[in-house]
Design a protein that fits this description.
The chain has about 80 residues and is α/β, with parallel strands linked by helices. The protein has helices at about 15-25, 45-55, 65-75; strands spanning about 1-5, 30-35, 60.
Length: about 80
């Protein structure tokens, strides 16, 4: 499962964490892709991304050019 987000939630962040835990318990692998600003710099809630990462979910911020290589490394890990 891929989540493309800036990780700024309009709801309590705990709701997202709870849902992600539930999905992980079912055996689904999740990848978080953080959004980029128009200047191609990462723009996302880094604190929440770190909490998501603690669940065992990789969260990356990548330009489109770098994405295939990063995805290949993650899939082989």
């Amino acid at each position: 499962m891929v989540i493309i987000s800036d990780f700024y939630e309009g709801r309590p962040e705990y709701d997202l964490i709870k849902a992600l835990r539930h999905i992980l318990e079912g055996g689904t692998r999740i990848l978080g892709i953080a959004s980029l600003a128009s200047n191609a710099r990462p723009f996302y809630n880094r604190r929440l991304a770190k909490e998501i990462n603690k669940l065992g979910i990789d969260v990356i911020a990548s330009t489109p050019e770098s994405f295939p290589g990063i995805l290949a490394r993650l899939m082989n890990s």
